[in-house]
Each structure stands twice: as C-alpha cells, then as structure tokens.
Design goal:
77% helix, 2 domains, 153 residues, globular, mainly alpha
C-alpha cells in the first residue's frame, strides 16, 4: 500500500464515522429511555438503603439514551440539518469546555463566601460534563431547527 491509498482509506473511514446516523425511530426509544431512567433515579429516594450504585448506573443509562437521540436521523436529513448539527456540536463543545473550566472556580468561591469550612476545589464529574454537552447540543439543535421552520412557514 502506498501513502496515497492509506490517506484515502483513512479519509473514507472518517467520513463513514462522521456520517453515521441511527434510524429516526431510535429518537423515540431514546426519549422514552431518558424519561424512564430519570423517573427511576428520582424515585430511588423513596426506597430505604444505599441506592448510589443504582443511581450511578442509571446516570450512565441516561447519557447513553441521550447519545442515541443525538445520533438519530431526522425525518428529512438534508444539508440544512447537517449545518444545524455542526453548529450545535460546536456550541455544545464550547459550552462544555467553558463550564468545565469555570464551574469548579465558581463553586469554590461560593463555598468560601457561604460555607468556608467546606471550601474545597473540586473538579466536575463525567456525568455533569457529558450531560451538559448532550443537553446543550439537543437544545441548540432544536432551537435552530425550529427557528428555521418558522422562517420557512
């Protein structure tokens, strides 16, 4: 294999990965899964005993279902939708980076002011960061899509 064919193979692989989308029907499955998992998380406080392991597992399930929603096709998947996806990915990435950098500082300062004895600098957990990125993506995507639909109506 020469260098040119290796680059071409890598480019095709990257394009295939970037263009991967689940069928539109998975979006409904994702939303049902998110709602069900969140309902179970909220109801775990009603049970006696330590439910932290269950909550941790369910948080991962919520993230997985949100990811399924993000990867699901729209009914009409055209260049306009692809543009909204790119814009939403960019905005959610930026929001995630800014949140990850500044939120621990904000938390620390707030604890210094209101509860100095508990003021420790803590990084955010993976759930908080991924939850933010996925939900911000979905929020921006649907806002962009809705705004475009209103302009074309």
């Amino acid at each position: 294999m020469n260098l040119k064919s290796i680059k071409e193979c890598d480019r095709r692989s990257a394009e295939r990965l970037l263009n991967f989308k689940l069928p539109n029907s998975y979006k409904k499955i994702g939303w049902i899964g998110v709602i069900a998992a969140l309902a179970v998380i909220m109801s775990t406080d009603l049970f006696k005993g330590d439910q932290e392991l269950l909550k941790d597992v369910l948080r991962k399930v919520v993230l997985a279902f949100l990811f399924v929603i993000v990867l699901s096709r729209e009914e009409v998947e055209d260049e306009r939708i692809q543009s909204f996806r790119v814009q939403s990915y960019s905005l959610s990435f930026l929001a995630g980076v800014l949140y990850t950098l500044f939120q621990p500082v904000v938390n620390w300062i707030a604890f210094l002011i209101f509860k100095p004895e508990k003021a420790i600098f803590e990084d955010l957990g993976d759930f908080q960061i991924l939850w933010l990125i996925l939900t911000v993506y979905l929020l921006f995507f649907y806002v962009l899509k809705r705004g475009d639909n209103e302009e074309h109506s």
